[in-house]
Structures are given as structure tokens and as C-alpha cells.
What we know:
- By secondary structure, chain A is α+β, with helices and mostly antiparallel strands.
- The first copy, chain A, has helices spanning about 15-25, 55-60, 80-95; strands spanning about 5-10, 30-35, 40-45, 45-55, 70-75, 95-105, 110-115, 120-125, 130, 140.
- The two termini of chain A are about 25 Å apart.
Amino acid sequence: MDQQLHFITLATPDLETARRFYRDGLGWDATLEVDGEIIFYQVAPGLLLGLFDADKFAEDLGGGAAPGISGITLSHNVGSPEEVHRTTNAMASAGANVLKPQQGLFGGIFHAHVRDPNGVVWEIAHNPGWRITDAGEVVLG
Amino acid sequence: MDQQLHFITLATPDLETARRFYRDGLGWDATLEVDGEIIFYQVAPGLLLGLFDADKFAEDLGGGAAPGISGITLSHNVGSPEEVHRTTNAMASAGANVLKPQQGLFGGIFHAHVRDPNGVVWEIAHNPGWRITDAGEVVLG
Lengths: 141, 141
């Protein structure tokens, strides 16, 4: 697996307060905001930090996994739905537990969630609406 | 504050198991390993993921802060000890709580820890042994 993260996602109990802190307090510009759901900030070349409403974060991990949710996911994007499947299987072979098997979402996204032996939740995703420009800027949607 | 993270640090209950997963399972190369303490992996241009022994992680945040430790810190590096002070104050003015005021460490490092309104712990640091090459590679020590 490429040694690269693409998203870091934080379960966010109060999205509006977080938004005020990052935007007005730190002066950061959002790459994308989905009202009441999620705000993305670019925090390194090719890397987005996602502030994800905590209830929706739990839903996204499949609901049933909620008791073990760590409040953070590390996301790794790959080139195809098949590669999501291969990468998820490779992580499981290396000792990770599959929390939510691969499934399709809105916008042609395919993803799966696994928990690594350190207890950290990873998302392995294929997202046709996500790309990195030559200058390292992330474009979404 | 620049819209840039430099380190993401995870409290790691079992460092050796985590090391086996990231190194042998994912095939990742460490930038730096300090035996029994911390392992760094570069995960984006200019960005390191740190796996930090959970007990030492708690110590680093000042011990007394342990009950509120979230298990993740976002680190932002700045150019001088004075800038650590200024940035920490700016974050406090924007609604963050200072967990550990600025202090000096080994190697000429100065840092402080603050908790943002989202409950996430940030480290603001000046580290003279850390730099990013023109190619985006992180060099430590």
C-alpha cells in the first residue's frame, strides 16, 4: 500500500463551534462545506482534514460499530472499486478487522472501514470526484 | 496561522504490534524510530504520522491532563519559540484551552499543548531539528 494518507477525519460533537474556531479563529479556508455534515480543510499537500458531525460519523461507520469508534479515521484513496477490495483484504491479512465491508455510496464512491491492531479506524476508498492537482491541491466533487 | 499540519500523533497502546502492522503489513518505511517510544511514518508531503507509546504520550501532555486525552494530537510547527507563544495565545483567544504552557525540551525544542473547542489536542512547536526538503521529504534529528 502506498505510504500516503488522503483524509484525516475527526468525529465532531459541535460542528458550528468547530467551524468558528477553524475559520474565524485560525483563519483557515474550507475546501468544501456540507451544511450540518462535514467541513474539509486542506492541511498538507494532497491531504484534507475532515470535521464530520459525530452522529453522521457513527452512521458512516455502520452504526453497529459505534461502541468502538475512536473518533478518528485515516483515509487512503485508491484507483478503483477492485483496489478497495484488494487493499481491505491485504489489511485484514496483516491483522486488521473489517468493520464495514466494501459498499457503494452516492457519487460513485466505494469504500470500506477496517480497524488496525492499534485500534485506529481506516477508510479505504475509491472516489471518482476526488483528485490532486499537479500543484498538490485537493479538488472535491 | 498557516493552514498546515506537520505531525499527526496517535497514542499507541502496543507499539510493537503497531510497528509490525505498519512496517510488515502495509510495507511502510519509518522516517525515525525511537525504541519503545515513538515511530514516525511520512504520510503526505511534509507530514509525519507518529505512533507514540500511550504512557509517554500522556506524560508528554503533562500527566495531569490524562483524563481528557483524546488519543490524537495535531501538530503545527513554527519558526521560533516566540512564535510558539504567539500562536498558542492566538488559539486561546479563539476559544482553545491551554493544557500545557510553552516549555523547552531536549534538542532545543519548544512546544505547548492546547485543546480546541472540538476537544482535539494541538501541539504548537518550534523544532530546530525538523525540516522539509524542497522535494517535500521530512528530515528529523
